[in-house]
Amino acid sequence: MQTHTAKADVAIRIHTAIQAMAEEPEMGTDAMKVLMLYAGMLVECAFLFDNCEEALEGAFARMADLLECEPYAGDLGGRALPPSTIIDFDTEQGRSLAREFFEEWLDCSYEFQDMVLYLIQQSFARWEMFGMPRSESFRILVEATYKSMAFELAAQELCDALIEQKIGIMQWKLADSVAALAGCAGYKLAQSHEGRDQCCWFRGSDLPDLLDQTAYVMTQEAVRHGLCSTTDWRFGLPANDTPANPPTSLIREMEPVCAGFFKAIEMFDLNDQAVACAKAAGRMLAITSGGKKPELEPAIAKPLAMAAITESYKSVCVEYAFMA
Q1: Which of 63, 94, 161, 206 is deepest in the core (most CB within 10 A)?
Q2: Do the beta carbons of residue 307 and residue 237 sit within 8 Å?
């Protein structure tokens, strides 16, 4: 058990770490980045308890008491939150930060969560003096936290469903599983903007920005869970002038599983679904190709996943181009 002085020291170091991570040269602190980091910390705190959803609801009730307000109930607008890929990246950093400091905490989980809530309350009060209402900050925090938790639950549940239904019953191979999830990610991503206005045409070895960011979600999730972080992800990808060759049959078989889960958690935005599938694909990559004796060699699995997500994305873009 830590003394009050030691706990105060942990709080100070968390605050210092967050400020350093959110610092923008010549611009000061990126408040949105701070919000995303705090959202990730709250998600990780929630997973310390048996029922993470109830824990999160309790945390927000406590936050409302500390702030003496409820989250802003009006329309935030379509661009109030960062893109889903940024939310995943920043909140994962926050989750990592929470894990790091909780190892030092060695005390009650509730107290650790309360300390995080207190830090958030202090930040919101400070920002309000600069014109950012605490109710709006609170609302953005709530939205980002639930979205981050949804991405994590999606990665877990989609992998479990795939293992039970497709590998266990339908005898899918591991390569099929990776390609199916990655293919669904690329397919849904292209559908999210109907193949238009998102740099959907490939130039040289570069990927379109939106696809590159979503593929990064997949690669980072795989690395976080033990896959070696080498640079051979794009080795052997098809040339840009070759016809798109997506794993269509695998995507069609995986789609009902994804659709059922997304309906259950009310994740209807296709961009969010793409990020969730990419995260699940990264998790499946780590399952199949991580460790000292992988069941599927990383040198094969990583380009396979990258080809599935890029070819699926490209095929939808081409389809929409011909329809235009």
Answers
A1: 94
A2: yes
- CA separation for the pair 57, 258 (Å, rounded): 26
| Helix or strand (DSSP H, E) at 183 | helix 174-192
Closest CA to 198 of 178, 213, 185: 213
- Ramachandran angles phi, psi of 132, nearest 5°: -105, 100
Reading the block at residue 304, the tokens are 């396979």
Residues sharing a CB contact under 8 Å with residue 35, sequence separation 6 or more, in sequence order: 137, 140, 141, 144
Report DSSP state, residue 24. Answer: E
pLDDT category of residue 324 using cuts at 50, 70 and 90: low
User: What pLDDT, on the 0 to 100 scale, is given for residue 285?
Assistant: 92
Residue 8 has pLDDT above 70, yes or no: yes
Nearest to 198 by CA among 207, 212, 213, 208: 208
129 burial via Cβ count (<10 Å: 0-12, 13-18, 19+):
exposed
Instruction: Return the pLDDT at 209.
Output: 83
Q: For residue 275, which phi and psi values (nearest 5 degrees)?
A: -65, -40
Predicted pLDDT of residue 235: 56
How many angstroms separate the CA atoms of 150 and 11, rounded? 27
